[in-house]
């Protein structure tokens, strides 16, 4: 009912085109403007000028503003509510958000500790208490806005709009997952590891889309995405990542595209889906992922 519920309201389909077209146009412009530019070098130069925390704020703040645009557009242009953009439940289920956040936080911490003890030579201690404390505050404030923007845009606004337009569920699932991956194409990780990393980004988008469709809401995706970016940024940084932060550890290993890129997609994400499916008693996978949008009574 996450997509179907919108049929109760008189929403013009063309209104779902404005924000995606504007955002994709901005992405295309940004990609062309930085083509041939070493983004990693550009980030390092920015860090030299305004510092690590300043660079972090500069990179993340625009996405906070974009979240406000999406929510404003949803409320005042489409006359929609935050609840409908978020979930098919009578109200937003914050327990789902925090469960997903907590589960992925624990897994991220565990895998980081295992990686550190398996190959301590790949890490150096990067912990500087004062700078870390400032970064913690900035990260807690800004990262949930950044990740929520991506979820409300791709798994909310775009997925619902494409679902209404195509009367399908699999088309919006595939399209939004692909676009979510493409959004990261200008990241320095792509430049360092090659286009193979796009399998991870697109696969993550697919995982988050499946979460949204199976659970009939964004809550689990919101929690996972926030934990992934926030806890990851607090634990480990590197000189070639999009987020270069005052984290606890710094990864100094030489990055390479190997089988580890596919482990989350092929192993960890399916296990998470199984855990969520058991906890929330998911059923009828075929209908929820590949079924059609059935008409319901319009008010």
Automatic annotation (TrEMBL):
Domain CAAX prenyl protease 2/Lysostaphin resistance protein A-like: 133-231
TM ranges: 12-32, 52-76, 97-117, 132-149, 170-187, 193-213, 220-237, 257-278
InterPro entries to which the protein is assigned, alphabetical: Rce1/LyrA-like_dom (IPR003675)
Alphabetic keyword roster: Hydrolase, Membrane, Metalloprotease, Protease, Transmembrane, Transmembrane helix
Any single Pfam family the record assigns to this protein: Rce1-like
Record has Hydrolase as a keyword: yes
Gene Ontology molecular functions: metallopeptidase activity
Protein name: CPBP family intramembrane metalloprotease
Species per Swiss-Prot/TrEMBL record: Flavobacterium bernardetii
